[in-house]
Amino acid sequence: MFADRAKIIIRSGKGGDGHVSFRRELYVPNGGPDGGDGGRGGDVIFEVDEGQNTLGEYRHKRKFKAQDGQEGGKKRCHGADGDDIVLKVPEGTVIMEAQSRKVIADMSGENRRQIVLKGGRGGKGNQHYATATMQVPKYAQPGQPAQELEVLLELKVIADVGLVGFPNVGKSTFLSRVTNAQPKIANYHFTTLSPNLGVVDTENGGFVIADIPGLIEGASEGVGLGHEFLRHIERTRVLVHIVDAASTEGRDPVDDIHKINKELEAYNPEIAARPQLIAANKIDCIFDDGEENPIDRLKAEFEPQGIKVYPISAVTGQGLKELIYGIKELLNSAPAERIVFEQEFFPEDELFAENLPFTVERDPDDPEIFIVEGPKIEKMLGYTNLDSEKGFAFFQRFLKEGGILEELEKAGIEEGNTVRMYGFDFDYYK
User: Fold this and answer.
1) How does it associate, per the subunit comment (predicted)?
2) How far apart are CA 300 and CA 254, in angstroms?
3) Residue 168 is labelled as binding a ligand
């Protein structure tokens, strides 16, 4: 089965913890701290693979994890960095945060490789915390925690031209006649389950054309395979309506175009406003029986709106050359920029803003020491460089805006008391 959608959980590597150790050598009984730094956690990277055209390999495996960084060692040994994990996807894959459906990355155009989740930074060993007054620091910085995220992968086909129309109007036959594509053709009301792509070569340059699977009424509301089909039209610059001008199945071609435009408008008005033309197919089946010619009806209805009508027969090839030149002219006048979805969700900012719990307690052995713990604090300490003035100011703002200072005051803290957080001691002043 064609797989153009998958929901997976990705997780970056945790940073390795800094190490606590002291130099121990013969004749050096009380050596200084020599704990090494932890290694960096691995990143989660998405990369375009030209050989893939579906998201099939993500249908059966749900979780993907980069390697954690190793803990630092004795003698200032740095922990090994964790290996990145590289997830290969076909070009045109849009990566979204699963709940909000905000775009994280669009793997198309020049974007061939993107880091979606960064691995945690390794923690500093106790060698970094020796001072004139604290010569034997017995603490090290924990590694920055891993990031985990559920993402939705959607493949949105990249083509210049999208063929739209109801089932059995001849889209697949047309595509097979004018391109190198070899779609499976059968007389079913859902003939095509996956978009077929083909390249049309002309004297002044070619273009990519996609047979978007047959639409039905209610597609914009998800009826049938509506949404799965409609998402493939989002990148196309020009739309070609193929209609059964001969009404071989009893459908009215004028009514068909109105219905499809209505579905496009309901799904995304911006798509419905793109340049269009009409390919009135199956003219080899039109017979002069004294009734109004359906081609004249189509032209009278749509050409005043600026939508040209081209009578064709995909079976005999009649009118195909004129239609191809008409499509090329429309493409030349349409905006040339490839449609790329802008990033709306920034994992580091969003995950960092999580409302994680914390606790504030007095040290039972020393009532002037207040211990603050919780994943929220540990996460922030992992992110922040407290050695810099800017980093320390940022951390103070975090304590205030996160409600931690308020909780300390409720617990009865006074000026000059000590706040202890994961090996860091701070003096409290208002």
Assistant:
1) Monomer.
2) 10
3) yes
